[in-house]
Design brief:
Number of helices: 14
Helix content: 40-55%
Shape: elongated
Number of strands: 20
Largest sheet: 6 strands, antiparallel
Keywords: Coiled coil, Hydrolase, Membrane, Transmembrane, Transmembrane helix
GO cellular component, one term: membrane
Protein name: Serine phosphatase RsbU, regulator of sigma subunit
Low-confidence stretches: 1-5, 192-196, 643-659
GO molecular function, one term: phosphatase activity
Strand order of the largest sheet: 3-2-1-6-5-4
Organism: Beggiatoa alba B18LD
């Protein structure tokens, strides 16, 4: 039972621990790397954009400050030259003057040059920041603004040049001082970031690029209606910060490449990943030493204990006081060993008891075998007796059934009755039925009886024979009064039932017919009175008598009802085996369905009517069998000349034919 169990525990625990730790640590490192890199990239991007926007505003302030300082120097020069200039212009004087009066800081500004223009001369003095002067014609794009009488602070002349115009009010001749700046040098001046990180551009209010060094392909892809803010250049994959430059009525745009942001994020993420790997390595080292001390040694002790347990040493105990899973396992192991020791002792005791019980059981089995053999012989004898008794009972039932069939009316008796077309049917539920019917002709009158003995079987069949004998005897003695007839019949049946110590009783109705007159007496089921058109009326017999055989005296309950049958009218008598027949759904056949079938087929002969009713009852019952005796009597008054034979003379029993 414990073979190699220590190997199973050792391998399962170690593999499970390292597998779970490896999976969890790998998942933690991967998630930390992914989320860390994403967070670092997002932070670097946000800080870069904030720095870009801040730097753009700072550049605008520096440019504004530079242009303001340069303008102040130019105004000082304007004031001084307004008193010292004379014609013709002296180049040396003008160059020396500007070199002396314009400070070095102003000369370091992105000046392209200063023009001193007057309309009296075709040549214009041109001073360059390098300190040289020369005479040259005034450029065409500056002639249009040289005639301005009002000073112009700074103005964009084209996409690469900015100019300031200062008229000099000289007492002798009017002069105009024109200073020009290069847009590209203005943008690159005082750039505190590397050109690889930030690229400045200048746009006018219409969104046109003013950088003389740029081309249309390097224009940032930003909105034509340029506004201050941060933009994403989809075309060049750059972030662009835009700030308004009030002095030039233009916009300064600085772009930061997405590649620069990604490179900075990756460099930072590499440090983060390296740190994570170092931490993971440290964790694995700590886990290794921890598992060695906390898991490997206790497992080794447990394996030694299991080996001893395999040798049936039930005295071994781990006695581990740890509160973790290994401690719980050790406690479970100790409990298991104690239970195994107890079970071993009980098994030994049970083995001794079993050996003793085995010897006792063998003796009892031998005794019981002898007793069973004797009982088997007795059972075989009883079975033989029962078979003999069953054969005798079957013979008696067959005799009784034959007696019942013998006392039923014969075909020739029904055939001899004039004016009436009579069809009868009886089918017992067992070998011997408890239903009664009879058709007796005496002195020109016909007596038709129908009854139902409680239950069925031998007793009910015997009682039915008693009733048939008593009715025939009373008719032979010309007893026609219903009260006298039923009183005498009840006395006879009641006395016999008491002698038989039986609880059987019966309901019985008698019908006396002569020349269309009918007298109905006795208590039984409803009688169906059918006219020539098939319309059915129900005659209730409950008030016409009482149950026969239940009381010694019933004369006070006997009554009768008289009616007259026209030609084509008739009566239908039945027992409750028809109306209470059930189908597989336990639904009753019912009196209404019986009336409907009789009404639909009344235009036919009584034998056909009777057959239609029986067929419909069997269709209702289905594949099952009838649980009660079924008896049906159909009689119809017919004209005497239209009497037709219904049965052949070779047939001797009506029930045999119909069955």
């Amino acid at each position: 039972m414990l073979y190699n169990i220590h190997h199973v525990i050792e391998n399962a625990l170690i593999v499970s621990i390292f597998k779970r730790l490896g999976l969890w640590l790998s998942l933690i490192v991967m998630l930390s790397t992914v989320f860390g890199y994403a967070r670092i990239a997002n932070n670097i991007r946000e800080r870069s954009l904030q720095h870009l926007q801040h730097y753009t505003q700072q550049q605008v302030q520096l440019q504004e400050q530079s242009l303001a300082e340069l303008m102040s120097y130019l105004r000082i020069t304007q004031q001084r030259l307004s008193h010292d200039l004379t014609l013709p212009l002296d180049i040396n004087y003008f160059c020396q003057y500007l070199n002396t009066n314009i400070p070095v800081q102003a000369q370091q500004q992105p000046l392209m040059g200063i023009y001193l223009y007057t309309a009296q001369q075709t040549q214009t003095l041109f001073w360059q920041p390098q300190g040289t002067c020369q005479l040259r014609p005034l450029p065409a794009h500056l002639q249009a603004i040289s005639i301005q009488s009002e000073p112009i602070s700074w103005q964009l002349l084209n996409k690469k040049e900015i100019a300031a115009i200062l008229p000099i009010e000289n007492p002798h001749h009017p002069f105009t001082l024109i200073a020009t700046l290069d847009v590209h040098h203005l943008l690159m001046a005082d750039n505190r970031l590397s050109p690889y990180e930030v690229t400045p551009q200048l746009y006018n209010a219409r969104g046109e690029l003013l950088d003389s060094e740029a081309t249309t392909t390097t224009r940032w892809h930003i909105s034509p209606s340029i506004q201050t803010g941060i933009y994403w250049d989809v075309l060049h994959k750059n972030h662009v910060a835009v700030a308004y430059l009030p002095t030039l009525n233009s916009y300064l745009a600085l772009s930061l490449s997405k590649t620069v942001v990604g490179t900075m994020a990756w460099e930072t993420a590499q440090l983060f990943i390296l740190f994570g790997l170092l931490m993971l390595t440290a964790v694995f080292i700590l886990l290794y030493f921890s598992l060695t001390q906390q898991v490997a040694k206790p497992l080794h002790h447990m394996i030694l204990a299991i080996k001893r347990l395999e040798q049936h040493d039930f005295t071994i105990r781990l006695k581990m006081k740890r509160q973790d899973e290994l401690g719980m396992l050790a406690k479970s192991f100790d409990r298991m060993v104690r239970r195994l020791a107890t079970d071993e002792q009980q098994l030994q005791a049970y083995a001794r008891q079993l050996e003793s019980a085995k010897e006792s059981l063998e003796c009892k089995v031998h005794e019981r075998t002898l007793a069973l053999e004797s009982a088997n012989r007795e059972i075989q004898q009883l079975n033989h007796c029962l078979q003999v008794e069953n054969q005798r009972m079957s013979a008696e039932l067959a005799v009784t059934h034959r007696l019942q069939q013998m006392v039923l009316p014969k075909l020739h008796e029904l055939k001899d009755i004039h004016e009436l077309d009579i069809a009868v049917f009886m089918e017992p539920a067992d070998e011997v039925g408890g239903d009664y019917y009879d058709v007796l002709s005496h002195n020109g009158s016909v007596k038709i009886g129908i009854g139902d003995v409680t239950g069925h079987g031998l007793e009910s069949g015997v009682l039915m024979l008693m009733v048939q004998t008593a009715v025939r005897t009373l008719q032979a003695n010309n007893v026609t009064d219903p009260t006298q007839f039923f009183t005498a019949l009840n006395h006879t049946i009641y006395a016999n039932i008491q002698r038989m110590n039986s609880d059987k009783t019966l309901t019985l109705s008698l019908l006396d017919y002569q020349d269309g007159n009918v007298r109905l007496s006795g208590q039984h089921e409803y009688v169906l009175w059918v006219n020539q058109n098939g319309q059915v009326d129900l005659i209730d017999t409950q008030q016409l008598g009482f149950i026969v055989g239940i009381e010694p005296e019933i004369s006070q309950w006997i009554n009768f009802k008289e009616l007259f049958l026209q030609t084509g009218e008739g009566l239908v008598l039945y027992t409750d085996g028809i109306t209470e027949a059930t189908n597989p759904k336990r639904e009753l056949y019912g009196l209404k369905r019986l009336c409907d079938v009789v009404s639909r087929h009344w235009h036919l002969a009584t034998a056909q009517i009777q057959q239609a009713v029986i067929n419909d009852v069997r269709q209702h019952i289905g594949v099952g069998r009838a649980l009660d005796d079924i008896t049906l009597v159909v009689m119809k008054r017919i004209p005497r000349p239209s009497r037709l034979p219904l049965y052949t003379e070779t047939e001797d029993n009506l029930c045999d034919i119909i069955a």
